Amino acid sequence: MAAHKMAREKPGQTLQASDLVHEAWLKLGGTGSWENRSHFFSAAAEVMRRILIDRARRKQAVRHGGGCESIPADEVEIAVPETADEILQVDEALQKLVEVDPQKAELVKLKYFAGLTNEQAAETLGISEPTVKRYWAYARAWLLREISRQRQS
What's the burial of 66, exposed, middle or buried (CB within 10 Å: 0-12/13-18/19+)? Predict the structure, then answer.
């Protein structure tokens, strides 16, 4: 049932069918007194519908980027600087990132300049690999925005 509901969702959905089932099960209370199998599936379908609607509303909210174009973080790359000006722009942006979030700035140094993999960076920083991926996506977006600001001024 969850796979069927997820198949009708817009492509690029981050919620997996198994996640939907788990969340629905939690909302149903885990165990319940169901009259029969049909009653259970009817209740499960309603809970799944509500979860998907709440999720869609949350995604459309302005504070969650509603109305903005979604670009996967893996498609955004920070180009390796070729000129002295570009190196200085990256360095200046990185110095600002150090003030905002030193750990993410350290991750940029490890991945961008030292060429470490996510696994190696996670081990070096003492954090999990999924956290490295989140930090890296944030740091790349932050640096791109900062470099764009520098170029406009």
Answer: exposed
For the chain, counts of helices (H) and of strands (E): 7, 0
Query: Which residue range forms the structural domain that includes residue 16?
Result: 2-64
HSE-CB of 27 using CA atoms within 13 angstroms: 17
Read off the pTM: 0.47
User: What is the longest distance spanned by two Cα atoms in the chain?
Assistant: 72
Looking up residue 90, the CATH number of its domain turns out to be 1.10.10.10
Q: Give the single-character DSSP code of 76.
A: -
7 with 32, same domain? yes
Note whether 146 and 87 are same-domain residues. yes
Number of domains in the chain: 2
Amino acid at 55: R
Provide the residue type at 100 as one letter.
Answer: V
Distance CA 112, CA 114 (A): 6
Of 19, 46, 64, the one marking the end of a domain is 64
Q: What is the pLDDT of residues 24-63, one digit of tens each?
A: 777 777 666 777 766 676 677 777 777 777 777 777 776 6
Torsion angle in degrees (nearest 10) through CA of 149, 90, 85, 87: -170
